[in-house]
Amino acid sequence: MRAGDLVTVDLEVLTPEGDGLSESTGTSVHVPGVYPGERAEVRVEHVSRQTPRAHARLRTLLQAHPARVAPPCPHSDAGIAPRRGACSGCPLQALDLAAQRELKRAALVRRHGLDPGPLVAGPDAWGYRWSSKRIITGTSGHVLVGSYHRGSHAPAAMNDCRVDHPSIAAAARELQAAASALAIVPYDEATGSGDLRYAWFKTDGRDVLLTLITAASPSPAAELLPAALKLPAGVAWSVQAGRGNAVRGEPPVQLRGRPVLSVSLAGVPVEVGPLGFLQPNPRVAELAYRDLVADEAGAPHRGKLAFDLYAGAGVTTALLRREFAEVVPCEVYPESAAALGVPAEPAEVFLARQQAEGRHPELVVANPPRGGMGPAVCAALVRQAAPRLQIMSCSADALVRDLATLQAGGYVLRRLRAYDTLPHTPHLELVAWLSHGTGDD
Ligand SMILES: C[S@@+](CC[C@H](N)C(=O)[O-])C[C@H]1O[C@@H](n2cnc3c(N)ncnc32)[C@H](O)[C@@H]1O
């Protein structure tokens, strides 16, 4: 296979990016806009020199998935060849929801040999996202509050994004109009010049908190926008002067209105500040949280001591405290650690300290970020050898890597469940139940 070839492929499995993947020709061919179960004529764009792997572009859809639908979002390039300037955030939206969920489940089985059973879903197919980080691009006078197209830094419009909560979509529209009218200068990552870099919107289902992230201080955006924006209940500001993609920068400054939102998750009220983590889809995440603190049959764990690693806003800490005499959270981000009343420290440092103090929990719960826990934390957990370990993960690849270390260290996987936290995207949240030794309590 060579770049430029026209080939016909049958797509068999969904990739983590939401592409269709064909493996039957001996070369893995990735094709955006085509779904497993479909046949397409594609143009090969790139063939890897190291591995039998190619990227191709859809030319003609020869056989369509029976569950194809017209994608509702006009900005999306779901179900077609990628379009420059289009939003690539919801690549599955050209399929009905049942078919999306079946493709996500089937991909876990095929890629990792893990079958979570039918996906757990929430009530909302659209408007479910309560936390939305937008990238500011465009030019002075024509500011875009959008995103980057996948795999590039080409700006993509997200006006009236269908998956954002309607109050966030409205606040983003207002910011785009106000920043354009006030001639706010978008940050230019090529030159490092400009002012406004990111806008992070969060909602409690009614009010919106907006955090403006600018490249420097003083900032015209931070000076002018708070008075011009009527929709957010609170506006905060943080400076991120680094050249990378990190959104969180210097400690936030409150510019006007409310500094925190109170969001109820699984019946636990959580305070979320300007740079604090909020699950993008709290209504589905809370189903996973309830499972994460119970055993695999749904019965509550009880005991003397539990650790809650990557505790964030503290939902699982609060749930565990209903059943355990003592629950110790661990969190590295200072704002969240302070709210939890613990020192900000990474999980491996926390575990080493607990081990040195001879503290042995009956249950460890962990909800790490996308990269997973990693070898150092998994090795510390193996040394700790708590009878029960339960992990929530937003990356199947990272979870599978962590499971390999934990299983080699004596842990047994008892059950896996998957949650459709971000419909129309390939993402899943997973909960894994593990036990050490005999597997009995
Ligand atoms: C996926 S979030 C889970 C948050 C939490 N379960 C909640 O509901 O708010 C991951 C959390 O881990 C924290 N974190 C990231 N790396 C960490 C590390 N090395 N050690 C401890 N916490 C970390 C992040 O700040 C974030 O709050």
TrEMBL record:
Q: Which Gene3D superfamilies match?
A: 2.40.50.1070, Nucleic acid-binding proteins, Vaccinia Virus protein VP39
What positions constitute the catalytic site?
C394
What PROSITE patterns does this protein map onto?
SAM_MT_RNA_M5U, TRAM
Whether Protease counts among this entry's keywords is: no
Q: Keywords of this protein's UniProt record, alphabetized?
A: Methyltransferase, S-adenosyl-L-methionine, Transferase
Q: Which domain of life is it from?
A: Bacteria
Is S-adenosyl-L-methionine tagged as a keyword? Answer: yes
Q: Which residues bind S-adenosyl-L-methionine?
A: Q279, Y310, E331, N367
Enumerate the spans annotated as TRAM domain. Answer: 1-58
Q: Which family does it belong to?
A: Belongs to the class I-like SAM-binding methyltransferase superfamily. RNA M5U methyltransferase family.
This protein is called: TRAM domain-containing protein
Which species? Answer: Nannocystis bainbridge
Its lineage reads: Bacteria, Pseudomonadati, Myxococcota, Polyangia, Nannocystales
